[in-house]
Design goal:
single chain; 311 residues; alpha/beta; 12 helices
Length: 311
């Protein structure tokens, strides 16, 4: 659960919000009602602006990426906890003056959120675990909680499109993606073969299950399949650790080595993996990808995967 940085300004600001709301005129109330609508989200219903102008996104992954893909420029967000940076194709969509209010899983600075003067806050959660965090920030501005489940990235995009008044944009993004999937599927033919997605972490080696992981959704859509000797996995269990002695389990027609940033540094675990004699016996075509650009994500990363698959 995010560790919100509580400061005296937070409590004071909430008091100010309550006072200002209580002192609003009937005309202001009518205008406010006319310019808002009620949406349903993970934690209930919230009245949000019809056309939000100052959106704060307290997520650095799928939800933020979807917001950016829809053409919305957040006034504040959090940075990725592990790397502190985004891939270039995501970073270039972020406005230069977007405030950083913490990282993706902890230390959200509430004073900075207040300072961004949001008219809509978006938080992410898979269940009730973020309820306290949601309750804390929802006193600042209308707040919606959006689910973030790896395989449900299309639904997340549609939902955010609805919340942000960008339904047409969401539909167009998905329609264009499906058209690209069809084109790549035809290009690869009726039997494109098998694929293996390996994640190299700081000191661990995993392969990604065919079911449940985001990174498999696009390869699966164009007809690729996992080797029979790999566990297909589930939404709840999509990472499977293997030892260096089990490197044979990673073989496939196409082998994607998806590496975390630190593990790719000289002398780090990627070197250990690739210098293993068993790795040299793999028969498939090996391709290297950075994990922050492909492992988890949204419509933008799904399209990046299509770029790879058609190359």
């Amino acid at each position: 659960m995010p560790n919100v940085v509580y400061k005296s300004a937070f409590a004071a600001s909430l008091v100010c919000v309550a006072v200002l709301t209580g002192c609003s005129s009937p005309q202001e109330d009518e205008t406010s009602s006319a310019d808002t609508r009620t949406v349903t989200h993970l934690y209930g219903t919230t009245d949000i602006p019809v056309d939000p102008q100052r959106v704060v996104v307290l997520d650095a992954g799928n939800v933020l990426e979807s917001v950016l893909a829809l053409g919305v420029e957040p006034v504040a967000t959090v940075v990725p906890k592990t790397t502190g940076t985004w891939p270039d194709f995501i970073a270039e969509k972020l406005p230069e003056n977007a405030a950083s209010v913490g990282d993706s899983e902890a230390n959200v600075d509430v004073e900075k959120v207040i300072g961004a003067n949001p008219d809509l806050i978006i938080v992410t959660s898979e269940d009730e675990s973020q309820r306290e965090f949601y309750d804390n920030v929802s006193g600042i501005a209308p707040t919606v909680a959006v689910g973030d489940v790896a395989k449900e990235w299309k639904n997340t995009l549609r939902l955010l499109g609805d919340h942000l008044g960008k339904q047409d944009e969401a539909a167009t993004l998905l329609s264009d993606y499906e058209a690209r999937v069809d084109a790549v599927r035809q290009e690869l033919g009726p039997d494109p073969g098998t694929a293996s997605f390996i994640r190299v972490r700081a000191d661990k080696l995993n392969y990604m299950g065919y079911e449940g992981s985001f990174i498999w959704t696009t390869p699966k859509a164009v007809g690729l399949r996992s080797p029979e000797y790999q566990d297909v996995g589930t939404a709840e269990d999509s990472f499977f650790e293997v030892s260096l002695e089990q490197t044979n389990l990673l073989d496939a027609d196409r082998i994607f080595v998806v590496t975390d940033g630190a593990a790719a540094e000289p002398g780090q675990f990627l070197d250990t993996v690739t210098s293993n004699p068993l790795f040299g016996l793999l028969q498939g075509r090996i391709e290297y990808l950075p994990s922050n650009a492909y492992l988890f994500g949204s419509i933008m990363k799904a399209n990046k995967m299509l770029d790879v698959l058609e190359s």
